[in-house]
Design brief:
single chain; 461 residues; Rossmann fold; five-stranded parallel sheet; 22 helices; 58% helix; P-loop_NTPase; TPR_rpt
Length: 461
């Protein structure tokens, strides 16, 4: 008998989509207590557990049970593929995506997911069937968006740049999201003015004296996930992934400043309490000894002023990669949420320049230890660069650092598949294939005059 007082699993999925993970877990658990074989609730509970706690083993186990209960449901297969990729089992993930496509040949989300876990070597029957599906004018917008991103990846793999960029342009047009370029410009102007006035050095920094936090920053797709995966192989490192903790602190700080009317200062008690809360949270999450905790949210590059106030002894790794390679990689990637800048070539150029200029401000205006790391140098000759990383982090050498692809930790970022591969330089210089279409991006960065200068400063080609 249906319980009319209990919301259905669609309500739990809605909470999950709103990133209200704890509520999604609670509601799906209550549904399962009443209806233990409700497949949708099992799947929602699994995905919410994964998003909230990063517990691959539990989430995979629950989704496998859902698949056993409903073996013909393709959506369960591609959700299981996501979790298997996160855990590092990319071959099993690809098998699940292929099974989803066998069950539902027009499952464009599964095709997109397969492309993230597989390098296409030829224009096979699957690709041809997806090209034919693309010609179906009745295909709804979201499914067409996933299909276009999937075809862009496939033809990029096949070194067919004209076809690949055509699909990428369509995919980003269909998936366009807002981004406040003007607001981002104002924020950069504000921190520049504060740095010129030496306000950051004079600001209170009574947070926490720990040396543990190591922030890995830069542009999306610049190699931040790779560097964290390398460091995570060390037993003394706790890797947080793309943690929202500093972003949340920034939001709370903004509210406090607005309420107090103080534009630049934060109270010592607030800074100390916030930093102490983060430190306690790391210990609770780790449940083991650690010396270094990494946070690789790339856009913390815009928050180093606050980081310095919270953790004045923190260290920062700044990833540098050829800006046009970064730009192309962003444009071909479908991000789950946020990153609105990535859907327009000119916005990617603007944001790349803003991140680079922000890092220039911090380097002259903050007393933080910042290590510059070239992605190109790292993938060309890994061991010397990895030894630099270990020395900077204060870690004893471990040969495990050389094999980040063997990490078993959960990876939820767009680089899930790449970091499960041995370090390689396949993507270096990718932008050259797409140069005829990159005019808006290049112009927004400041033209090749700025790009060449940035490349020369970074020591890569």
């Amino acid at each position: 008998m249906v319980d009319p007082s209990l919301p259905g699993p669609d309500a739990a999925w809605a909470l999950l989509q709103q990133e209200r993970f704890a509520e999604a877990i609670d509601l799906s658990a209550r549904i399962l207590a009443r209806y233990p074989n409700n497949v949708s609730a099992i799947a929602c509970h699994a995905m919410a557990i994964w998003r909230d706690r990063g517990d691959d083993a539990q989430a995979i186990g629950e989704l496998k049970r859902a698949v056993e209960l409903a073996p013909g449901e393709s959506s369960l297969r591609h959700n299981l593929g996501v979790l298997l990729t996160s855990s590092g089992d990319v071959e099993a993930a690809a098998q699940q995506y292929r099974e989803a496509l066998r069950l539902k040949p027009d499952d464009t989300l599964a095709f997109w997911g397969l492309g993230l876990n597989h390098r296409f070597g030829q224009e096979d029957e699957l690709i041809r069937s997806m090209v034919a599906l693309h010609d179906d004018a009745s295909l709804e917008t979201l499914r067409r968006e996933f299909l276009a991103f999937g075809l862009a990846k496939a033809f990029d793999d096949l070194n067919a740049p004209e076809r690949a960029i055509g699909y990428a342009l369509e995919a980003n047009r269909l998936g366009a999201r807002p981004w406040d370029a003007t607001g981002a410009g104002r924020a950069l102007a504000r921190i520049t003015a504060l740095a010129d006035d030496d306000a950051f050095r004079r600001a209170r920094s009574s947070g926490h004296p720990t040396r543990a936090p190591l922030f890995i920053v830069g542009m999306n797709r610049s190699g931040t996930t790779l560097v964290e995966s390398i460091l995570s192989r060390h037993p003394d490192v706790l890797a947080l992934g793309e943690s929202p903790q500093i972003h949340r602190a920034e939001s709370d700080a903004r509210l406090r400043r607005s309420a107090s009317g103080q534009p630049a200062e934060l109270g010592r008690d607030w800074l100390a309490a916030r930093a102490e809360g983060l430190v306690r949270g790391w210990a609770a999450r780790a449940q083991r000894p650690f010396r270094i905790v990494t946070d690789k949210l790339p856009d913390n590059a815009l928050r180093l002023g606050l980081i310095r106030q919270l953790f004045p002894r923190a260290r920062v790794i700044h990833m540098r990669r050829h800006p046009l390679d970064v730009g192309v990689s962003n444009f071909f990637q479908r991000f789950g949420e946020g990153q609105g800048f990535s859907t327009r070539l000119d916005w990617i150029g603007l944001y790349t320049r803003q991140v680079a200029d922000s890092m220039g401000v911090w380097k002259r205006g903050l007393d933080l230890e910042i290590l510059e790391v070239s992605y190109e140098a790292l993938v060309a000759d890994p061991e010397p660069e990895i030894r630099r990383l270990a020395r900077f982090a204060g870690l004893d050498w471990s040969d495990a650092l050389l094999t980040p692809e063997q990490s078993t930790r959960a990876v939820k970022t767009a680089s899930q598949w790449q970091v499960r591969q041995p370090i390689n330089s396949r993507s270096v210089g990718r932008w050259k294939r797409y140069e005829p279409w990159l005019g808006p991006m290049i112009e927004a960065m400041g033209g090749f005059a700025w790009i060449d200068r940035y490349v020369a400063e970074g020591g890569f080609t």
